[in-house]
Write a structure and sequence with these properties.
The structure is a single chain. The protein is 33% helix and 15% strand. It is α/β, with parallel strands linked by helices. It has a six-stranded mixed β-sheet with strand order 2-1-3-6-4-5, with helices on both faces. The chain is elongated, with a radius of gyration of 27 Å.
Length: 207
Amino acid sequence: MANVSVLNMEGKEVGKIDLNDAVFGVDVNEHLVHLAVVQYLANNRQGTQKAKTRSEVSGGGRKPWRQKGTGHARQGSTRSPQWTGGGVVFAPVPRDYSFKMNKKEKQAALKSALTDKVESGNIVVLDELKFDEIKTKKFAEVMANINVDRKALVVLADNDQNVVLSARNFAQAKTMQANLLNVYDIVNAKTLVLTKDAVSKIEEVYA
């Protein structure tokens, strides 16, 4: 069972917390992590790419010259793919790139991503993260106090608007609720910052 220091918003250690091995201490399955990231990106694709086939390009209804006797190769339309202005062969059409993963695979991938952050030491646990007002400067000060100066994912137990809006204009961090956690954002972040309440909620859902 991993034992991690708990820091306050000033960056001082105020205790320790034991992380549940069922969530933060599993065998890392790199294949499932990769699959989860690919799924996240694929599901976000709009799939609106479109080009016209020869049947959709305007014009070309008349045969450009007679079949025989001209010396040219026979042609039926000026909108065939080999013509300038013609249609595209096997043209891309709007499509859905999304695909599904099994529920157990998703959970295993998420646990693997969390475990990797613990094993690499890129995890910070805060006793709490609360502001009396919306202030980006205060959020930046907290991040500086806990030595987080690169891409961070800050996970909250609930939707605390003061924290969320304070972090919105802070380029190096992204906030997220514990119940909306996903593999892509965990992997994409350099440091994972969790509140104690968020840790409890994650363990409650996934343990």
